[in-house]
Amino acid sequence: MGVLSYAVVDVPGLTSPSSSLGASRSRDSLNGVSWRGSRISVVLPTYNERDSIRAAILDFASLEVIDEILVINNNAAPGTSEQVLAAIEQLPNGTRVREIHEPRQGYGYAIQRGLHEAAGDYIVVSEPDGTFLGRDTFKLLAYVEDFDVVYGSRTARTFIWRGANMGLWLRWGNWCVAKLMEFLFNSTNLTDVGCTMRLVRREALGRMVGQFTVGGSAFGPEMMLLSLLLGLRVIQVPVNYLPRIGVSSVTGDMRKAVMLGVSMIGLVLRYRIRAWLGNGPRGQAETALPRESAQVR
Q1: Which CATH architecture has domain 6-12+22-278?
Q2: What would the pLDDT profile of 49-75 be if each residue is shown by its tens digit?
């Protein structure tokens, strides 16, 4: 494997969500790891995952098909950076790890920053809080030949581990909002709007860049809505859902979880009405740098 590379990058927030995709690729090339000739980036947004970020990095790196892991430090708990460095010292292969600081507070802002910085052909997003398994990446990769975006789903009972925070209301609430989205947009089968784990092809991401408007916890369903309205090939597959390490700042509070669910319903309805009125997302061409800028140097 290639020589391990690590960089802590303290960069101010993006000046605009519509900045060119992968603007840093010319200065930061990937290592020689690949999956069927394609490069894979993993984006791990972190805020309150100090106690789990180390294990998450090692878990994804152990797959030996990941080229780079981007840890997006979104004003994370003290000690998070030290845990990232500790993981680097344990990495057995050539997976490249970068920690990038995103000062704009919010799950959506952190994900957008990671998508902007990622250099892979396929970009995987996952929360590093212990609830997801790195090996489920292979489930998502199984569909990339036929689909542009592969979303994970946490509501299949068989894959919900004992002790996971997926009780009756949270499970069926996510399922109901997903079915509302499926019905209003006549989409493929959808069963979860709150699952972070997903994979997007670079070309598909290029069509969505500049059209994200949500910087908070409802970013996930907005990405789903945009992919549907832009006519991207979308599928959702069940992934494992484990007990969280630590307490979630949103789903750990029932009142916040209910408010988030209501806001997601409102988001779905707004996007549907706007599309009916002809104000839907623009079917823009891919926004990305030339492919040669991503080559290993």
Answers
A1: Alpha-Beta Complex (3.90)
A2: 999 999 999 999 999 999 999 999 999
